[in-house]
Structure formats: C-alpha cells, structure tokens
Amino acid sequence: VDCDTLAPSATGGPWLCAKGATVQGRSAGGEILWERTFPEEPTLAVNPDGGFFAWWLDSPLLGLAADGTTATTTPLGPDLLPQWIAVAPSGESALVGRAFLWLLVDLGSGVRRPVQPCLENTVGLSPLWLDDELLVLCGDGQLARAPTSAPDAFRRMPLDRLVGPSAARIAPWGPDGLLITTDFGRVSLLDRASLRFREGLGVTDHPLVGIAPAFGRGLVALRGDRGDVTLWRPGGTTTTALPTRGQAIAFNGGDLVVFGGRRERWRLPEEPVPRRITLPAGLSDVAVSPSGTVAVGSRGDGILSIWNLGGGDVQNVPVAPNLVLKDGAFAPDGLGF
User: Taking the CA atoms of the chain, what radius of gyration do you get in angstroms?
Assistant: First the structure.
C-alpha cells in the first residue's frame, strides 16, 4: 500500500493511510473502509481509545473516530504546529507540543495552558502518558515526569549516561520498567522509579526512532530511521533483524504488523528453549558477544578462554601470564574484546 503517512490502530482496529491530503481508513486486511480529504496534508497520531488525531498548520486538533468522522475539535491557535501528542488514559486531556513549546489541552472544552516539562531552551520529545504519570524526554539527558493528578507539576531526573542526551523514544515495559532508544542505535531498559540502568545493547549504528513493546510475550520490536526492523527480548544479548522495512510498527494480538510501502504481518516464533552450557571453575568473569555466538572467560592465570557457543569448542589464549584477569567486555560491533 503506497502511503505517505501511516497510523496503526492502538486497539487492533482500522488503521490510517494518508496520501497527501487524502486519508483512508483501512481494515486489517488492507481494504479501504472510508476516505476523507482534508484542506492540507495532515499529521496523524493514534488515540489510545481506538481513534486518531489529525492536524495541520493553523488547524484545530481533530479527534477522529474509527469510522473517520470528527468526534472532537480542539483549537490549538496559530502559535503551535504539534510534532508530538500524548493523550491521558482517561481520554479527557492531552499534552501537545514540539521542541520548546508545550500545551496541556482539555479535549472537551478546548481550554489549553502552556507547560514547561524541560528546562528553558531545552528540547522536549516523545511524551508518554501512563496511568499514574506523564513523561517527556528532554534534550539535556533528563526525564521530565509529572503525576497524572497534576500534569503541569513536572520534576526532572537525570537519565543514565548510556541514554542521556541521545535519547530518542520511550515506551513502557511492564509495571516498573521503561524502554528508551537512542540516536546512536542503542536500546536500554531502566527501572521506572529510580531510572537506574538494568540492561541494554547496541542494535544498529543509526538512530532508533520506533519502538513497539509486547510485554506479555517478552518481546520488543525496534525500527531504525532507515526503516529497518529488529526484534529483541529483554534479558537476552542477541537481536533478530527482519528482512523488511517500514514506516511504522505495532503489535496486533500475537502478530507484529509492519507498515511501509507494503503492509506485512509477521507470525513470530515462540520463545526458544534455553540451552545450558557448563563452563569450568576458576573464571572471574564471563562476557557474551553481541551476536550471542561467542563467550569469553577471564581467568586468574592470565589466560582468556574463548567458547564457540554453537559448537561448544574452546580456545585458550595466553594474554598476560603474570597477571590476574578480573573482567572483560566486547566492543559493540563484536569484533574486539
């Protein structure tokens, strides 16, 4: 399907395909359900209740029902063309904005008031509205957070240095985790309360601009700015690249749907059965390569033991006979240690 802009449904219902100023609602199978033409090419966003939002320069914020009809009209004023929108779980209000300008908008009355999630002259991006709090990534390496009961009372907490100023997108992971992608191709899992780093790995050498978590399946889909799609299971050190490219990704039931030049549905395999490998005693540290195919163990006699995790064979390499090797780590590309 040739679309300029895509918006997958949050509830597995119809999805939107925009071609210039014309927007089509399409079924799960790709059939056109309805078509509507706007005065200009609109920006589209997904509403958690199953509908959508559409807006363009100097337009109001239109709330669209799944059948394409206008459910709500909220004036934004001439001073704001939103890049981001996050809707409260109640559906009553939304945070809209771009860069330094952010508004809290009552979707019923249209009343809006300015808010400042990040420090002055600091870019905000990728807002996320959860049941109990509102989150915004800040360009200075901090996370702004406000309780849902007081969504304008932001406080800022520094992110881990591995995430920091390069943070690009944010998504929830279960009740107590946050997934954050970066502009240099890394994904990290942080504790939601303390923002302490739990785990992460490098996925690509370019920005990760899309993230679709499926917590119940223990699986995360990631999209790079070149359209590449990669799967990762938190807790694992390997990723799986799908042989496809897309503009948007979303989970629909047990399937991952990739929206792009064509719409593809991937039936994902169940989690593989883990294989146990017994390593000898006397190791001070074991590191696994990013590909998950090689493990290196540090020993007290200055020798590195290198295992092929596929075949099980081991190679012992003397490195520093008079030194005790405490620990080691792989380079992100897996080519050095």
Answer: 23
